[in-house]
């Protein structure tokens, strides 16, 4: 994969029909669950056995018409291998067929004439049911040896409409993944919502199940107040119109530290790593994707795989670097990481630092866009900070500035605003000198003179990309204006709300008189991207790995409010045994939770006709989602649990006993520790990026049924948690985390439907 480059382009984003999924990965055949008269029955038979491949045996199916059409074992239909130990055969039967029987048979690959038929009676297959039946199959290999296999028989009803649509999707999109032999995404599209017989046992008042949460997402808080605190102004004089305003300004930076404090602490005020300032030269190591930057004194040795750089970006000879497993970071995998590393090594030095300068009239969503970009880039592991010039202005000149302060012919006002913009830029560049990677300058920056000043300050130090937000939808503008007046500290002391709205509109008119659209340098123009009616993304002179990711992210962002429900699968048998990973089925408690979850979804999303259910490809999430009917179901391989590699299926006590070095390495650095032949949390975050992009793109509710490590990573994105905290985030069993995304930010609510029966289930 080469780094993206656009010299000039326009991307038109057209609104998609409700329920349409633009999945970044490849899709397999869609299968519907809607029962309808005169429909067809979809039948899927799966067999699981780790021993089959070693025995050189292949499973087949034979039986009555119309499944196989013959009880002759020599004419049995072969099952397709879909994973290392799983084989499947699926078909669609005509409506109103008679009850039929079938059996499974094993054949030698070298000699198909030799057949081993499963023991026991024939397997009956009913008509018109939507269910999954799990049983065992026993094959007698010889007098002393018998082979036991797990068998799943799934039957679902298909309408003729869904059958045609599924076949079309199959023909156009079916491409199996080359990883583990499974599909990247499986879409199960439902036409209608029948009555759910599974859903029961949950009271109608869902609020009864709400549990207290620690506020962490900043909803209801003015977004600019959550940005970087102005270091250059903390020890300088502040002007204010009255003591109340001065108190408000002090509260905005309460808990922050002076510049001297920044030089002597190991962590920044937001809990992220800050560079050491003890005179040591440092070595910066960047995996390129998915890892935070970190610094160590040059006289200490570090370990990376393949790529070694000193602080000037020069390649360090491998023989000068000693390997330390607890310090070294594994190499980033895949073509995306390769593009990032190439940019770091071979691009101009100033291109390794990126400044995103927002441009646009007031109330156009600049701060919203900056906040989302900051959260996204931090989550990917790029050290990113958001600098809001308005916050600098309020700290320097007070909050009670009337619209006259923003007149284009007010020389003092223009100079004052340019001064605080320069201060914010200076702070950003200073932070970048200390190791920061991406700075976001959030202001109107509405004239060429202002933008030229910023470009001159950044010359030779970093790369600048302008992101201009343009909105022509009057309804959206009116909503944004009123929200701005309601939340902005500029109007905190304005008792007459409508007077505040009039003052803001007057300020806006002054900006409009002098506004000059971006036509210089590298830029991205977002035109009417938030109204829900499509929009455009105009791109000029954009190149490189990170700018390319930013373009892809922005084209999928919008302001449509919608809930996202995150929940772990119901308690599994491996949870009961305290085992890592695996692909076990649900325990009795897990089955109860699956029915309660179905009831919850039916009540919570009763009016949401276009909601969808996302699961991993592991059976414990699929079984948890099975009782939920009436919504499309999508299986994402990217949502599979963290790969525990050689530790898969072990308990933590067994890992501690048999692999003490791995146990200790994981205990010391759970974020970066990679299971042998498995994954780390950073690897999980990398593969979840397409899921995040699709969650941002969706305009309808989504229910994500996944696993602890996966949900920790997804939750960290929405809550803007530092990467170091990801492995410690609490995601309890049998609890639903509802995240509401919208123009006011991100809100969180938790519903606890039942307790986990086994104490080990929360590991």
How many strand elements? 28
Mind telling me the C-alpha Rg?
29 Å
Count of individual helical segments: 19
What kind of oligomer do you see?
single chain
Q: Low-confidence parts lasting 5 or more residues at pLDDT below 50?
A: 15-38, 167-184, 236-333, 759-763
Structural class: alpha/beta
Average pLDDT number: 75
Content of β-strand = 15-25%
Give a short synopsis of this structure.
The chain is α/β, with parallel strands linked by helices.
Structure description:
Helices cover 29% and strands 22% of the residues. The protein has 19 helices and 28 strands. It has a nine-stranded mixed beta sheet with strand order 2-13-25-24-26-23-27-28-14, sandwiched between helices. A seven-stranded mixed beta sheet has the order 1-22-21-20-17-19-18, sandwiched between helices. A five-stranded antiparallel beta sheet has the order 6-7-3-12-11.
List keywords for this structure.
alpha/beta, 29% helix, disordered C terminus, 7-stranded mixed β-sheet, 9-stranded mixed β-sheet
Helices and strands, with pairings:
Blueprint: E1 5-12, E2 27-28, E3 40-48, H1 52-55, E4 57-63, E5 77-78, E6 80-83, E7 86-93, E8 100-108, E9 115-117, E10 123-125, E11 131-140, E12 146-158, H2 160-173, E13 185-188, E14 210-211, H3 243-252, H4 259-262, E15 282-285, E16 294-297, H5 334-346, E17 354-359, H6 366-380, E18 384-388, H7 389-397, H8 411-433, E19 438-442, H9 448-458, E20 463-470, H10 474-487, H11 497-514, E21 523-527, E22 536-543, H12 545-554, E23 562-568, H13 573-577, H14 588-604, E24 612-615, H15 619-625, E25 633-636, H16 652-658, H17 660-668, H18 681-697, E26 702-706, H19 708-719, E27 735-742, E28 745-752
Parallel strand pairs: 2-13, 17-19, 17-20, 18-19, 20-21, 23-26, 24-25, 24-26
Antiparallel strand pairs: 1-22, 3-7, 3-12, 4-5, 4-8, 6-7, 8-9, 8-10, 11-12, 13-25, 14-28, 15-16, 21-22, 23-27, 27-28
Helix pairs in contact: 6-19, 7-8, 8-9, 10-11, 16-17, 18-19
């Amino acid at each position: 994969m080469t780094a993206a480059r656009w010299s000039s382009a326009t991307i038109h984003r057209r609104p998609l029909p409700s329920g349409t999924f633009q999945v970044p990965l490849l899709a397999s055949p869609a299968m519907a669950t809607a029962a309808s008269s005169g429909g067809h029955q979809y039948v899927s038979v799966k067999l699981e056995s780790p021993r089959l491949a070693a025995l050189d045996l292949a499973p087949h199916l034979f039986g009555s018409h119309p499944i196989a059409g013959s009880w002759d074992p020599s004419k049995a239909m072969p099952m397709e291998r879909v994973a290392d130990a799983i084989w499947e055969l699926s078909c669609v039967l005509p409506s109103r067929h008679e009850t039929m029987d079938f059996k499974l048979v094993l054949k030698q690959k070298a000699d198909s004439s030799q057949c081993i038929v499963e023991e026991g009676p024939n397997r009956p297959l009913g008509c018109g049911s939507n269910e999954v039946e799990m049983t065992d199959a026993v094959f007698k290999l010889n007098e002393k040896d018998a082979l036991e296999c797990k068998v799943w028989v799934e039957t679902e009803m298909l309408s003729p409409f869904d059958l045609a649509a599924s076949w079309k999707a199959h023909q156009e999109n079916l491409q199996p993944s080359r990883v583990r032999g499974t599909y990247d995404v499986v879409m199960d599209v439902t036409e209608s919502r029948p009555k759910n017989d599974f859903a029961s046992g949950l009271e109608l008042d869902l609020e009864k199940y709400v549990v207290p949460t620690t506020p962490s997402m900043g909803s209801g808080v003015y977004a600019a107040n959550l940005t970087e605190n102005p270091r250059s102004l903390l020890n300088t004089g502040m002007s204010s119109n009255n003591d109340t305003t001065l108190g408000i300004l002090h509260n905005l930076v309460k808990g922050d530290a002076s510049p001297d404090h920044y030089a002597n602490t190991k962590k920044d005020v937001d809990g992220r790593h800050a560079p050491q300032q003890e005179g040591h030269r440092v070595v910066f190591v960047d995996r390129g994707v998915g890892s935070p930057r970190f610094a160590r004194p040059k006289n200490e040795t570090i370990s990376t795989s393949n790529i070694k750089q000193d602080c000037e970006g020069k390649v360090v000879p491998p023989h000068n670097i000693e390997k330390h497993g607890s310090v070294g970071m594994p190499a980033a995998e895949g073509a995306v990481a390769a593009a990032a590393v190439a940019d770091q090594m071979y691009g101009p030095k100033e291109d390794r630092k990126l400044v995103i300068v927002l441009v646009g009239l007031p109330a156009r969503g600049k701060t919203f866009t900056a906040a989302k970009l900051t959260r996204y880039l931090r989550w990917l592991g790029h050290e990113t900070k958001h600098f809001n010039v308005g916050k600098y202005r309020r700290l320097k000149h007070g909050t009670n500035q009337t619209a006259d302060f923003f007149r284009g012919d007010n020389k003092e006002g223009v100079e004052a605003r340019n001064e605080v913009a320069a201060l914010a830029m200076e702070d950003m560049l200073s932070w970048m000198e200390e190791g920061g990677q991406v700075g976001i300058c959030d202001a109107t920056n509405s004239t060429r003179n202002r933008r030229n000043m910023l470009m001159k300050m950044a010359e030779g130090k970093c790369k600048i990309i302008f992101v201009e937000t343009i909105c022509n939808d009057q309804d959206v503008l009116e909503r944004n204006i009123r929200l701005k007046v309601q939340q902005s500290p500029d109007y905190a002391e304005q008792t007459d709300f409508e007077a505040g709205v009039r003052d803001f509109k007057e300020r806006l008119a002054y900006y409009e008189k002098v506004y000059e659209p971006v036509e210089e340098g590298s830029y991205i123009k977002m035109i009417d991207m938030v109204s829900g009616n499509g929009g455009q993304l105009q791109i000029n002179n954009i190149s490189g790995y990170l700018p390319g990711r930013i373009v892809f992210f922005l084209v999928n962002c919008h302001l449509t409010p919608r809930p996202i429900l995150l929940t772990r699968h119901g308690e599994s048998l491996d949870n009961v045994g305290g085992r890592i990973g695996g692909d076990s089925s649900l325990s009795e408690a897990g089955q109860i939770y699956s029915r309660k979850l179905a009831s919850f979804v039916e009540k919570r999303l009763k009016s949401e006709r276009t909601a969808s259910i996302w699961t991993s490809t592991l059976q414990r999430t699929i079984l948890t989602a099975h009782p939920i009917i009436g919504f499309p179901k999508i299986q994402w391989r990217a949502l599979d649990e963290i790969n525990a590699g050689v530790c898969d299926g072990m308990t933590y006590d067994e890992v501690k006993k048999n692999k003490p070095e791995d146990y200790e390495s994981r205990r010391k650095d759970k974020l970066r520790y990679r299971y042998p032949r498995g994954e780390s949390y950073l690897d999980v975050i990398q593969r979840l990026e397409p899921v995040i992009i699709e969650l941002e793109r969706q305009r309808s509710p989504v229910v994500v049924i996944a696993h602890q490590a996966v949900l920790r990573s997804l939750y960290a994105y929405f809550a803007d948690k530092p990467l170091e905290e990801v492995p410690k985030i609490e995601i309890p069993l049998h609890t639903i985390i509802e995240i509401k995304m919208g123009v006011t930010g991100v809100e969180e609510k938790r519903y606890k439907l039942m307790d986990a029966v086994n104490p080990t289930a929360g590991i």
